Amino acid sequence: MAALAQEAQVAGSTAHPGIRRLLEARLDQPLPHLVFEYVEGPTLDDALADEGPFHPIDVLLAGMQLAAALGHLRGRGLAHLDVKPGNVVLRDGRPVLIDLGLARPLGEPPAGGHRRGSPPWMAPEQVRRRPASQAMDLFALGAVLYELATGTPAFEVADQGPPERRWPQLAGPPPAPSSRNPEVPAALALLEAALPADAAEADRLWPSWATPRLGAWQASTMARPPLAPRPA
Fold first, then answer.
1. What pLDDT shows up at residue 1?
2. Distance (Å) of CA 174 to CA 55, 68, 150
3. Which residues of 45-131 form beta strands (DSSP E)?
4. pLDDT beyond 80 at 196
5. Among 82, 92, 198, 203, the one annotated catalytic
6. Where along the chain do its domains lie?
7. Which pTM was predicted?
8. SS3 breakdown of the chain: % helix, strand, coil, rounded to 5?
9. Residue 87 above 90 pLDDT?
10. CATH code reported for the domain at 40-222
């Protein structure tokens, strides 16, 4: 119940076209539940499986729109902490973040000191159970964009084995995107730089959330044609 109440509080404080809306919280029912809007469309996971890597322009547009959604959360003192292809739905071709079940206030340590998240997209600080930060979401966003550009996860993790197999992000950035997909242009080399062993370094690679530029980006990208996987 505590987890459901926290998700309701987090979701109820957001209002952004790039984040799924909470419609109703019924925590006083025999079976407590939350009612979210239905976001129709494939997840990024589905789109990658069906069509393969995205066109570089669509990768950049996805990054700008998702960064705006994450900036909205940060403005409310929150981190999503589970940004991954399966938690992004393409509604009319535009990315919408879903599942705020792991979101928590910036600076708050993980509940009970437990490691929580989706391993292939977790920032090194998140693996090390550090307090929630914006840098964790930016690292995960970089990993998602890397996957959109190359068609493969930035970090191939194993369920068992030594730490370097289970948490390869602790060892450093992944291979250059162009080594996974030769068609990735040099301009997307930023994706490799956005995945450092210390996710806090990623803050320097993205626009400041405090500038009005982010709002302008959001407005312009929402008016652009929808994202679409690259034709086969």
1. 63
2. 20, 25, 12
3. 78-79, 88-91, 94-97, 104-105
4. no
5. 82
6. 40-222
7. 0.80
8. 45, 10, 45
9. yes
10. 1.10.510.10
